[in-house]
Amino acid sequence: MTEHHSPEPPSTFTYAVGAGLGVLIGGAVGLFLGDGYFLAAALLGAGIGIVVSFFVRAFLR
Q1: Are 18 and 53 in contact (CB under 8 A)?
Q2: What confidence score (pLDDT) does residue 36 get?
Q3: If you write DSSP's letter for every residue of the chain in order, what string do you get?
Q4: I want to staple 30 with a disulfide (CB 3.0 to 4.6 A). Which of 7, 40, 41, 48 is the partner?
Q5: pTM above 0.85, yes or no
Q6: Comparing C-alpha atoms, which of 20, 51, 25 is closest to residue 38?
């Protein structure tokens, strides 16, 4: 009998979740700093979110 494991989500899903959370957090920080910083902070947050999700995914393997 074979063991059944829950399937691991695809890496693009993990990176998309990281980017989405990064955009939310970065956007909130950008709004706090001022309207001129919103887009830059949101994009920076997305990049940081992707990098963090990469390391979390590598660490959990």
Answers
A1: yes
A2: 86
A3: -----PPPPPHHHHHHHHHHHHHHHHHHHHHHH-GGGHHHHHHHHHHHHHHHHHHHHHHH-
A4: 41
A5: no
A6: 25
